[in-house]
Design a protein that fits this description.
The structure is a single chain. This protein has 117 residues and is of the alpha/beta class. The protein contains 2 helices and 7 strands, in the order E-H-E-E-E-E-H-E-E. The strands form 2 sheets. The protein has a 4-stranded mixed sheet, covered by helices on one side. A 3-stranded mixed sheet has the order 5-7-6, with helices on one face.
Amino acid sequence: MTKHIGVTFQVRVADYKKGIRWYEILFNRKPDFIPHEDFAEWEIVNGAWLQVAKGKPTKDNGSIRLGVKDISSERERLRSAFDIEIEEVNTREGVPAAWCSFMDPDGNRVGLFQELE
């Protein structure tokens, strides 16, 4: 099997300027790379990129979950910054992680997770 060295995920936003601003707040920083008009990228972790492109959002696409150190405080930061509902933090017996999900303004599912000790 070939060893892969990176991964990209793409979401589409109907209003590019609003979409970029939303993801800037989510990541708490500007894009890392803007290769051309209506397309921006953030390197989330080494070798893993989120691409935000202007276009028709895809209904019921898979979620993008971002690992955080403190899910409760990050959930509160995003609830306040976006003024949106974010589901309660979920856990399940035998699963060493906590998680919660929410939607971006275009209906792309986004989430957070925290590895538990």
